[in-house]
Amino acid sequence: MILEVQKTASPKGVSTISMLKTLWLTSVSLSLAISLILFPKEVLAASIRGLNLWWEIVFPSLLPFFVTAELLIGFGVVHGLGALSERWMRPLFNVPGSGGFVWVMGMASGYPSGAKWTADLRRKGQISQVEAERLVSFTNASSPLFIFGAVAVGFFHDPSLGALIAFAHYGGNFLVGIGMRFYKRREDRYAWVRDKTSPSWREAIHRMHHSRLQDGRSLGRLMGDAVTRSVDTLLMVGGFIMLFSVLTELLKQTGLIHLISHLLSWTPLPEAFHAPLMAGMLELTTGIGAITATHEPLLSQLILVSFILGFHGFSIQAQIASLLADTDIRFKPYALARIGQAFLSAFLVILGYWLYQNTEWFNQSLPIWNPRETFTEPIMKAFETIGPPFTLVMISTMVLIRVMKGGMVK
After folding, report:
1. For 16-58, what is each residue's pLDDT tens digit?
2. Whole-angstrom distance, CA of residue 285 vs CA of residue 292
3. What sign for the dihedral angle of Cα 352, 354, 359, 365?
4. For the whole model, what pTM was predicted?
5. What are the boundaries of each domain within the chain?
6. Burial degree of 54 (CB within 10 A; 0-12, 13-18, 19+)
């Protein structure tokens, strides 16, 4: 019997590829651990930068959207509105009407919101696997607050560029959605026939009521679940932000980022953009800041910034992969869509820049609305002031709710 167990556990049956993967992952983990020991001061500073970004801005700005969306889904509002928006979501993107809610809310709140709500709809059975893969590919976008405030004003110091960057970013997102409507369309060829007739307002209200009854949770239970789930998701997001902030700093300290960026020397890309582009592929905020700090032409900077915003950076992609991990939604379609949007947004910013330079109306109308004075700067200052205490209060509230529900992890 002992001989049989030993024979079963023998490594002879292990494939070479699996063994190489194990060795690779082990080497990366050991290298990361050694780097953390060699550069403790730099790692701590990078980790604090990521923490400050999360608890000052990311958490307080996203939590209201997450909690509201949880309530709307629980009350059946999303199901009812989805029935009404079927008439335009299905022809445009070949997804159910409930995807309209995910699309609009995802653009308003920023990534990774679209992935979270797509996964929620999939778990509730309101969309199929293929429809979810289409939906997640174009419902994750940068928020207008980030584009107009952080990018246009904070990095470029030119509010008028906000509309140009937004046009390229959201335009690329829209075109990706149009293209993804053809993804695996044979697998749901009966969906269009099933949803061809658009329901009336009365039918939509009945669907909303039926969805709420099917959910069955009381108002108190629903609010508690909304807070705890939203905080759980944002804790995961914060962990990824800090992790990739540290990884980016370690690549800089070890010089690996310059070694990797050396591969770009075979391309016509100016040398000044090599390291910033690699940093942006990891974490977009760091990369955008480095790109706008160069002395290269404005159009070149805009092209790379739009490319990075469309690609999302591996930090955000890792967050979305984590949100999709407990569903059957495959990550590959989303990843391929990011490459497509990166190039589409870069092309659209070239087109938009030509209009920006040559259209009199465009030049005269944009600077009239200065988001630094009227919108983004007060909000950013408010986040810096109330963001940390708000974050701590909401985390404490989540812990209290779980204690009262008896759901504290043992």
Report:
1. 887 888 888 888 889 888 888 888 888 888 888 888 878 777 7
2. 11
3. positive
4. 0.76
5. 38-405
6. buried
* Residue 343 in this model has a pLDDT that exceeds 90: yes
Do 66 and 233 contact (CB within 8 A), yes or no?
A: yes
Pair of tokens at residue 196: 């061809």
- What is d(CA 263, CA 255) in angstroms, rounded to the nearest whole number? 14
State yes or no: cis peptide before 112, omega within 30 of 0.
yes
Per-residue burial over 364-375, b = 16 or more CB atoms within 10 Å of its CB, e = otherwise = eebeeebbbeeb
Burial zone of 255 (CB within 10 Å; 0-12 exposed, 13-18 middle, 19+ buried):
exposed
DSSP 113-174: HHHHHHHHHHHTTSS-HHHHHHHHTTS----HHIIIIIIIIIIS--TTHHHHHHHHHHHHHH
Environment class of 132 (CB within 10 Å of its CB; exposed 0-12, middle 13-18, buried 19+): buried
Q: What is the rounded (10 degree) CA torsion for 228, 233, 234, 240?
A: 150
204's tokens: 């939509």
What pLDDT score does 339 carry? 93
- Which of 49-53, 330-334, 386-390 reaches the highest mean pLDDT? 330-334
